[in-house]
Amino acid sequence: MTSYAAAGVDIDAGERAVELMKSRVARSHRPEVVHDVSGFAGLFDASAFLRYRRPLLATSTDGVGTKVMLAQRLGKHDTIGIDLVGMVVDDLVVCGAEPLFMTDYIACGKVVPERIADIVGGVAEGCRLAGCALIGGETAEHPGAMGPDEYDLAGAGTGVVEASELLGPDRVKPGDVVLALASSGIHSNGYSLVRHVIASAGLGLDQEIPELSRTLGEELLEPTRVYALDCLALIREAEVHAFAHITGGGLAANLARSLPPTADALLDRGSWTPPAIFGVLAGHGAVPQAEMDKTFNLGVGMCAIVPAEEADRATALLSGRGVPTWVLGEIVEGSGEARFA
C-alpha cells in the first residue's frame, strides 16, 4: 500500500520534533508574544508600538550558507541556529531597530526529531541572546531532493525603530571615529572558501592545529557573536551615527554601505591582530590578502561610527559588556569608500 511514509515523509517524526523543541522555544519569548492555539501563525502584540511617535518596521532574512555542511559532518547541530539569528538580527540593528521576533525554516532529507530540536534550540538560544522571540517556523522533509543527513535553514526577523532615530549614512560626517567590535571567529560567511582550503590542504576537522587551542572543526563551528543587545545598549548610552554588520564581502565593502557619498572611512590595519584561524586558512590555502579581505570579517564582526568625543565612552561600554572594542579608523572627506591607510 502506498503511503506518505513510504514516500519518505514521516509525519510522526515531525510531531515528535515539535514536542522536543517546545520548551527551548519558550525560553525566547517576550511579553508581547500571544499564543495562537491553531499553531498556524505567530502572533505579536503590536500595541507595544503605541509608545512610538512614528514606528518603522524593519525586516531581514538570511541563512547560514555552507557552514551547515560542517555542522552535518561533525554531527553538532545545537549552535548553527545561533549563527542564523546573528545573521538576521544584526542586520536589523544596523539601522537602530530593536529586533522583536523571528521565524525559521528548516528543509531536510529526513526528520530526525532530536536533530531538529537541537537546530531549533539553537535558534531559540540566539533569539534569547538578541532579546527577541522565536514565534514560529516550519520544518519540511524533502526525501529524494536531499540526503537523509542533509538540511538547510533560513530565517526572517522583524524589528522596530523610531523614524527620528533611524541610523545610517546621512548621519556620518568627517571627524567621526570608526569602532571595531570583535568577532567570535569566522561567523557565517566565506565557508565555501573554507571548505575548499580544507579539501585542498588535506586538513581534518578533528585535527589539532598548533596555532589554535582546539580542533579545526571546533574552531570553524564557533557560533556567530550576536551584537543586537550590545548595539542597542550603545544607542541608549551614547550618540551613534551608524553601524555596519561585517558579513559577506568583508570589512571594506560592508562598511562602505554605511558611508555617505562625500566621506571615506580610513582604516588602520595595524590596530588589531586577526584571530589565528584566519592566518591558518591563508597559510594552508595560499590565499592572498586581497582575497581574505573581501571574503572574511578578519576578526571584526560589527563596526560603529560615532562622534570622536564619544569614542572612549563607547569603547568602554562595549568592552564592559564583553565585546572587545577598539578604534579602527576615522571618517574623512572622500567618495563613499572604506580603505586601509
What would your notes on this structure say?
The chain is of the alpha+beta class and 341 residues long. The chain has a 6-stranded mixed sheet with strand order 8-10-7-11-9-12. Strand 4 (98-108), helix 4 and strand 5 (133-141) form a beta-alpha-beta unit. The longest helix has 18 residues, at 113-130. The radius of gyration is 21 Å and the shape is globular. The relative contact order is 0.16. The termini are far apart. It has helices at 11-26, 67-74, 80-92, 113-130, 191-201, 216-220, 228-237, 250-256, 276-285, 289-295, 311-320, and strands spanning 33-34, 43-44, 55-63, 98-108, 133-141, 151-162, 177-182, 242-245, 263-267, 300-306, 325-333, 338-340. The chain has 11 helices and 12 strands.
Order of helices and strands: HEEEHHEHEEEHHHEHEHHEHEE
Q: What is the strand arrangement across the widest sheet?
A: 8-10-7-11-9-12
Q: What is the end-to-end distance? A: 71 Å
Principal-axis shape equals: globular
Structural classification: alpha+beta
- Radius of gyration, whole Å: 21 Å
Count of alpha and pi helical runs: 11
Q: What would the average pLDDT be, to the nearest integer?
A: 94
State the total count of DSSP E strands.
12
Main beta-sheet annotation: 6 strands, mixed
| Proportion of residues in helical segments | 25-40%
Task: Report the uncertain regions.
Answer: none
Strand content: 15-25%
Main location: cytoplasm
Pathway: Purine metabolism; IMP biosynthesis via de novo pathway; 5-amino-1-(5-phospho-D-ribosyl)imidazole from N(2)-formyl-N(1)-(5-phospho-D-ribosyl)glycinamide: step 2/2
Domain PurM-like N-terminal: 55-161
Catalytic activity: 2-formamido-N(1)-(5-O-phospho-beta-D-ribosyl)acetamidine + ATP = 5-amino-1-(5-phospho-beta-D-ribosyl)imidazole + ADP + phosphate + H(+)
